[in-house]
Automatic annotation (TrEMBL), chain A:
Record keywords, A-Z: Amino-acid transport, Cell inner membrane, Cell membrane, Membrane, Transmembrane, Transmembrane helix, Transport
Ranges annotated as spanning the membrane: 6-39, 51-71, 77-99, 111-132, 168-186, 215-236, 305-325
Topology with respect to the bilayer: Multi-pass membrane protein
Domain of life: Bacteria
Pfam families listed in its UniProt record: BPD_transp_2
CDD domains assigned: TM_PBP1_LivH_like (cd06582)
Full protein name: Branched-chain amino acid ABC transporter permease
Record has Ribonucleoprotein as a keyword: no
Provenance organism: Alloyangia mangrovi
Main location group: membrane
Family of the protein in this entry: Belongs to the binding-protein-dependent transport system permease family. LivHM subfamily.
PANTHER family: BRANCHED-CHAIN AMINO ACID TRANSPORT SYSTEM PERMEASE PROTEIN LIVH, HIGH-AFFINITY BRANCHED-CHAIN AMINO ACID TRANSPORT SYSTEM PERMEASE PROTEIN LIVH
UniProtKB/TrEMBL annotation, chain B:
GO CC term (a single one): plasma membrane
Top-rank taxon, per record: Bacteria
Keywords carried by this UniProt record: Cell membrane, Membrane, Transmembrane, Transmembrane helix
GO molecular function: branched-chain amino acid transmembrane transporter activity
Cellular localization per UniProt: Cell membrane
Organism, scientific name: Alloyangia mangrovi
Membrane topology of this protein: Multi-pass membrane protein
Lineage of origin: Bacteria, Pseudomonadati, Pseudomonadota, Alphaproteobacteria, Rhodobacterales
Keyword Repeat among record annotations: no
Keyword Membrane carried by entry: yes
PANTHER family, sorted: HIGH-AFFINITY BRANCHED-CHAIN AMINO ACID TRANSPORT PROTEIN BRAE (PTHR30482:SF10), HIGH-AFFINITY BRANCHED-CHAIN AMINO ACID TRANSPORT SYSTEM PERMEASE (PTHR30482)
Name of this chain's protein: Branched-chain amino acid ABC transporter permease
Length: 336, 430
């Protein structure tokens, strides 16, 4: 039995990757949940909004790299995030004016808006591929590791290494800052409070003189920012491919619903629940158990509950369990 | 009525035009997939148009239909069956038993213990299931992995796979409907989106079932092979008398054979769907769609009726999927894309006119035609746009490469335009 090595192995393969992935999902789910709370529909185009914002950031990163700008050990893409956000903001605000506003005025049923968002999804998908193509793009630079496995072993003398990628550390830090800013905005500023009021009770908010169009615009701006940040962080951590972003829709929705759709705190909790289950269930536990259990009980197989190809199944099963037993999610949904 | 006839005439003209201007082979390819698409659209229309159910898992049910073709029509692999066939069946039955036991435990036990009981049953059951299944899977996949490595099918006529595909899709739909129906409408959407991804993941990874990404090729066909036709002197003579060479005539004849089969299926299904729409049952479904509360107050069991129509619609998608795989002659799980198989079918239904069966069929043909033809049209337009640019410029190359992505954009724009300016579709519900 070797608890220290067991813990390091666990941290290396499960805790660190899941923390990073969970932060990315949480940011994505926050976007979905905000749209749900304010505009009252499930936005199927969210994955592609992320892809578009990230694409703008990738293009800006390449421009900066070509101009010789660099952040030293940090990825240049951090500097490009504002450009990405601006790009995403222009796109979603234009979409809102041209498409969504019409249905808002009509007071269309939410399900119609969902179908509309499906059309938007097609358009964004086509636009992104039109500009950057459907292939994998790598735009990460800077120092690759905060701590590499070898340094960690030399430092601690343990058999197991703990590698933390710069992008993983960065993801968690940026996500923390973003979420704190968002909560400060929602709870402390006038605009944030008006958004919460609008989400809580539309009629009452209108009566007290809140301008609904302003609330909607601010929401889209925040969503564009959240989507781009989530997308850039995911792209830095893994790589940027438009189709992968489209596929992220499922875990993101699962995170939002598991936490309680419409509830920002829930979205964050949901993101981590999904990420930890996904990584934990597709991780081969053999190494951990070999360290953790007495030698006589060491497992023969890989002790992998499901192959990594089934990671979607994990978010899905959690989703179904929550829908069956607690349809409102872990936190009570529907308000911010 | 004139509108219906006019629009169908337009579709016919488009397909015939393809035949005259491009080639009759292309026209028949479009027609065949159009027929299949029309059946998928009919299924989705049943769910959305008639009952207001939002199913975005069409791809999964189509893929289940494709799997049915392999399971029904391929010859069995006796060595693989000897290696682990019964054990795999046993493991799957055990898995089903575990789920049933968990459901029973939840229903019968008191509130205090049932959560723990269900968790224990599923956890222990899962490990036992894997212990039963894994060795059998390894044994099966080790049998001649380059050529088979799977259990094979039943070796039955391939036409039988079409109804079987429908039944299998219906089974999956029942399980998913049982959990997700009765909740909010967008939850059903997300649940179906998920189940579709899972079905594709299963098809890609469970090699013992249908060879995964190694694909099953050479599926039996309900129509003769081109080679056999060309070797048949009678056929060559007939072709010659029509002024065609034997090769072209044989490819056309095979495709025409599929067209006739598919048309027969579509006509039967369309008649059934029309009868259902006009029956008391159809009126009840529309009453539920338009006002659930009122229908419930009248004593209609809304969730049950929803489950029923959800299963029916998915069965149609499964059948269409089986037909499509038969047409392709191979099952390639890697090619199932949600944009193509789920969302495109939705565009067909919305554009055609939700709630109107003829509209769904029209949408199926029209949108499929556009999906195929937008690329050459885009190519043409792009050549025109870029004709002024210098040869070899990066912008020109990029623009010409991007033509293939025009489809998605066009489909999205068409969907948005129809939703905005003709929300009831080209052929509105009466």
């Amino acid at each position: 039995m070797d608890f220290l090595n067991a813990f390091v192995a666990l941290a290396n393969f499960v805790i660190v990757p899941a923390l990073a992935y969970g932060s990315q999902l949480a940011l994505g789910a926050l976007g979905v949940t905000l749209i749900y709370a304010i505009l009252r529909f499930s936005n199927f185009a969210h994955g592609d909004t992320m892809a578009w914002g990230t694409m703008c950031a990738v293009l800006a990163t390449w421009g900066l790299q070509a101009a010789g700008v660099s952040l030293g050990p940090l990825p240049t893409a951090l500097l490009a995030i504002p450009v990405g956000i601006a790009g995403a903001a222009v796109l979603v605000l234009a979409t809102d004016r041209v498409v969504y506003r019409f249905y808002r005025a009509q007071k269309a049923k939410p399900v119609i808006l969902v179908i509309v968002s499906m059309g938007i999804m097609f358009v964004y998908n086509g636009l992104t591929r039109f500009v950057i193509g459907p292939d994998d793009q790598n735009f990460a630079d800077g120092e690759r590791f905060l701590i590499s496995a070898r340094d960690f072993k030399a430092m601690t003398g343990l058999d197991e290494g703990l590698a933390i990628k710069t992008t993983q550390a960065l993801t968690v830090v940026v996500a923390l800052i973003t979420v704190s800013l968002l909560f400060w905005f929602l709870n402390r500023t006038r605009t944030g409070k008006s958004m919460r009021a609008y989400s809580d009770n539309e009629d009452l908010a209108l009566l007290s003189g809140i301008n609904p169009e302003r609330v909607v615009t601010v929401t889209w701006l925040i969503v564009a920012a959240l989507a781009t940040i989530a997308g850039v962080l995911y792209g830095l951590d893994k790589s940027f491919k438009p189709f992968t972003y489209f596929q992220l829709l499922l875990p993101i929705f699962a995170a939002a619903i598991v936490g309680g759709i419409g509830n920002p705190l829930g979205a964050i909790a949901g993101g981590f629940v999904i990420a930890f289950s996904e990584v934990g269930i597709t991780y081969a536990w053999k190494k951990f158990l070999t360290y953790f259990l007495p030698e006589s009980m060491a497992p023969d197989g890989l002790v992998q509950l499901l192959s990594t190809d089934y990671k979607f199944a994990v978010s899905f099963v959690i989703l179904v369990i929550v829908l069956l037993f607690r349809p409102t999610g872990l936190f009570k949904g529907q308000t911010i | 009525m004139t509108r219906t006839i006019g629009l169908f005439a337009l579709v016919a003209a488009l397909i015939l035009g393809t035949g005259f201007l491009q080639s009759w082979n292309s026209a028949l390819i479009i027609l065949n997939m159009g027929l299949v698409s029309a059946i998928m659209a009919l299924g989705v229309n049943l769910q959305w148009g008639l009952a207001g159910l939002f199913n975005v898992g069409v791809m999964g049910f189509v893929a289940v239909g494709g799997l049915a073709v392999v399971l029904v029509s391929m010859a069995p692999v006796p060595e693989a069956w000897d290696a682990g066939g019964p054990r795999v069946i046993g493991a799957i039955l055990f898995g089903i038993a575990v789920v049933v036991a968990a459901v029973l435990a939840w229903k019968k036990l008191g509130t205090g213990v049932r959560g723990w009981a269900v968790a224990a049953i599923t956890l222990v059951g899962f490990f036992l299931y894997r212990a039963l299944l894994d060795p059998a899977v390894d044994a099966i996949e080790a049998v001649n992995p380059a050529a088979t490595g799977y259990l094979g099918g039943l070796g039955l006529p391939v036409l039988l796979a079409w109804p079987v595909g429908g039944v299998m899709a219906a089974g999956v739909a029942w399980a998913i409907g049982k959990t997700a129906l009765g909740l909010r409408s967008d939850y059903l959407a997300i649940a179906t989106l998920g189940i579709a991804e899972i079905i594709i993941a299963v098809l890609k990874n469970e090699d013992w079932l249908a060879r995964g990404v190694k694909n099953v090729i050479g599926l039996p066909r309900p129509v003769p092979y081109e080679i056999d036709l060309q070797a048949d002197p009678g056929f060559v003579e007939t072709a010659g008398s029509l002024g065609l060479d034997a090769t072209t005539a044989s490819t056309l004849a095979v495709k025409l054979g599929y067209s006739l089969l598919f048309t027969a299926v579509l006509v039967v299904l369309l008649i059934l769907a029309q009868l259902a729409l006009k029956s008391p049952w159809g009126r009840m479904m529309r009453a539920i769609r338009d006002n659930e509360t009122a229908a419930e107050a009248m004593g209609k069991d809304v969730t049950r009726r929803h489950l029923q129509i959800f299963v029916l619609g998915c069965a149609l998608c499964g059948m269409a999927g089986a037909m499509m795989t038969t047409l392709d002659g191979q099952l390639t799980p890697g090619t199932y894309q949600p944009l193509r198989y789920t969302f495109l079918v939705w565009v067909m239904v919305i554009v055609g006119g939700s709630g109107n069966n003829l509209g769904a069929v029209l949408g199926g043909f029209l949108i499929w035609f556009l999906w195929v033809q937008v690329e050459p049209m885009g190519q043409f337009a792009m050549n025109l746009i870029t004709s002024g640019m210098s040869e070899g410029s990066a912008v020109k190359a990029h623009l010409q490469d991007s033509v293939q992505h025009m489809r998605l954009l066009t489909m999205g724009v068409i969907l948005l335009l129809v939703l905005r300016f003709a929300p009831r579709g080209l052929l509105p519900e009466k």
